Amino acid sequence: MRTLAALLALVLVISVSAQYAPTTQSCCEKYTPHVVPADRVESYFKTSSSCYLNAIVLKTVADKEFCVKPELTWVQRIVTKLDSL
């Protein structure tokens, strides 16, 4: 009986720790105020729905990341272009 209780406790600890584990994608604290040139952007990702700001993170060829508003026209063009590649 003790083995079963210990096993259940272990499963509970693992499931709780996995829920709060850090993700590889971070949340944005603020939006970038300037336009990122489309020819410099190589990839993007959307921030998690649990983040305070709804944002798209644009990653450039220089390995820099910029948080931008997803509803901006120039951002939508970049996302559409990258999705078509």
Question: How does this model look, in words?
Answer:
With 85 residues, this protein is of the alpha+beta class. 35% of the residues lie in helices and 18% in strands. The protein has a three-stranded antiparallel sheet with strand order 1-2-3, covered by helices on one side. Strand 2 and strand 3 (65-68) form a beta hairpin. It starts with a helix and ends with a helix.
Produce a short descriptive summary.
The protein has two helices and three strands. It has helices at 2-19, 73-84; strands at 41-46, 56-60, 65-68. The protein is of the alpha+beta class and 85 residues long.
In the predicted model, the low-confidence regions spanning at least 5 consecutive residues are 8-24
Q: What spatial order of strands do you see in the largest sheet? A: 1-2-3
Strand percent estimate: 15-25%
Mean pLDDT: 81
What structural category do the secondary elements indicate? alpha+beta
Radius of gyration: 19 Å
In CATH, the topology is named OB fold (Dihydrolipoamide Acetyltransferase, E2P)
Task: Please give the domain count.
Answer: 1
How far apart, in Å, are the first and last alpha carbons? 57 Å
